[in-house]
Amino acid sequence: MEPTKITIEATINANIEKVWKIWTDPEHIVKWNAASDDWHTTKAENDLRVGGKFSSRMEAKDGSFGFDFEGVYDVVENHKRIAYTMSDGRTVDILFTKEGNATNVVSTFEAEAENPVDIQRDGWQAILNNFKKYTEAFGTFEKITYEITINASPEKVYSTMLDQETYKQWTEAFNPTSRYEGLWEKGSKILFLGTDKDGNVGGMVSHIKENIPNKFVSIEHRGEVRGENEITTGANVEAWAGSHENYSFKEVKGATQIVVDVDVVPDHKSYFEETWPKALKKLKEICE
Fold first, then answer.
1. Which alpha helices (H) appear in 179-268, and where do they start and end?
2. Cross-strand pairs, 132
3. Exposure pattern of 36-57 as b/e (b: 16+ CB <10 Å)?
């Protein structure tokens, strides 16, 4: 008996190169590969070639259940088609079609026998919808730049900016309880935190992309902190996924010119335009 085949599709408002990268890159897969907010993918591996294997570890956020979604690639046509066989022998065929500045994704998979077809279709469609939402939001930032000249050496400005105690002082403009936990070393995770008027802790889960002492620091924001939880997937954090905050330090006639480049989503632009100049003015006062 031939297995039942189910087809789902979505049109992604992004070019095919972006769609392909986000579909196949494990760094992105762990952020969109979930059917609902109470599930997430904790780990993904992808050897994108014919005969190559892939694996995603999918778990309920409450820790009650989890499983490995695995398979082997049968077809890989760059920017066009992916076909694979899952570990249980069922097959999946995915077509990527360019439609102007958008991309149509059609996935056809063989149904399993344990669950009704409509439940399977809804679950796979929910994941595809989550992919669409994440992909369309990713990288849609506006870069804003702030700069100030401080009458101090780059070494002093750099150390003052990043020192745990003085960091709290110059970032008060964003939140009176502003602080960080973690390290500024390249490759490290760092949490930027603050407490609201109701006593709730919130902030950003971030990663240090680069740190060249006294010259350049690059931060990538990957998610949010809400209370004791670090959230890097879901609709509420997708808009910030992949945004950067860069600090450049340049010595100019014995002083330091610091340039801050920040990726912002439109809803937060006015907030940053008000707070960043205040924060940099405070930094200047502390250093001088």
1. none
2. none
3. eeebbbeebebeeeeeeebebb
Nearest CA to 234 out of 107, 143, 141, 137 is that of: 137
Amino acid letter at 112?
E
Q: Give the DSSP H or E segment for 145.
A: strand 142-150
| Average pLDDT of span 237-257 | 87
Do 150 and 287 meet the contact criterion of CB atoms below 8 Å apart?
A: yes
Whole-number Å distance between alpha carbons of 56 and 35: 14
- CA pair distance 109, 285, nearest whole angstrom: 62
CB 246 within 8 A of CB 255: no
Lowest mean pLDDT among 21-35, 201-215, 219-233: 219-233
Q: pLDDT band at 247, cuts 50/70/90?
A: very high
**Identity at 288, one-letter amino acid code:** E
Spatial contact of 11 and 104, defined as CB atoms under 8 Å apart: yes
Cα–Cα distance for residue pair 214/204, rounded to 1 Å: 24
Those residues whose C-beta lies under 8 Å from the C-beta of residue 272, and which sit 6 or more positions away, are: 144, 262, 264
Residue 188 has pLDDT above 70, yes or no: yes
Find the mean pLDDT for residues 65-81.
97
Per-residue pLDDT tens over the stretch 123-179: 999 999 999 988 887 767 888 999 999 999 999 999 999 999 999 999 999 999 999
Within 10 angstroms of residue 157's Cβ, the number of other Cβ atoms is: 26
Distance, in Å, from the CA atom of 128 to the CA atom of 122, rounded to the nearest integer, reads 10
Contact 194, 179 (CB under 8 A): yes
- In this structure, are strands 243-252 and 66-77 parallel, antiparallel, or unpaired? unpaired
